[in-house]
Specification:
By secondary structure, the chain is of the alpha/beta class. Helix content is 43%, strand content 20%. Strands 1, 2, 3, 4, 5, 6 and 7 form a seven-stranded mixed β-sheet that branches. Helix 3 packs across helix 7.
Length: 220
Amino acid sequence: MLRDIAVCLALIVLFLTVLVSGCATIYTAPDFGTYRYAHSKIALLKFDVTIELGGESENVTAKEIQQLEAEQGESFQRAVYTHFLQGQQQGRYTVEFQDIDKTNTLLNRELEQHATSEDLTALTKAEICTILEVDAVIAGDIKLDRPMGSDTAIASRLLAGLIGTKNQAHIRMSIHEGEESKLLWNYEHVARGGLLSSPESVARAVMKGAARTFPYEKNR
């Protein structure tokens, strides 16, 4: 009886592990070793969040969805930064991470003064690195079929009409270096179900998988 219970528990753990990390796709540049110890500081940008609702968003406006996407992009940035900061304090990385408040302030100032676009698509990753005075940047995007857990009124109204949705997120994170915008690392992951209860829970799940290949880990 105990043996059967143990087998069942093992299968459940295996299933959950596959659910969390089985859909990850990872790329690391073959010559990353030439950048690894040449870099000392990197920045984490706000995530570009897209909430793809189809025809199920009648109770909110397009402007409200855009506002929610911006809020959740910043929330996910903060959740991932917290994870990196904890690892940095433990001495796990070969680089330091720029404070995200400084990152966001510098980029907002640049957009207000010079850019013609409302977002960062008008700038190359190399140009962003120059503005931020860092060696590389981590950027990412998230595609959701419903918002991650949120206390905002917009999310509450939106979630009320989305009971039957799949509740999953496609997440991509990438690292580009600051001289030629070269892609050094790319991580793609699908999160489902209860993992989307909050940006923090999604960040934990994603970073748990990404940590195995994150190129600035000292133990790699």
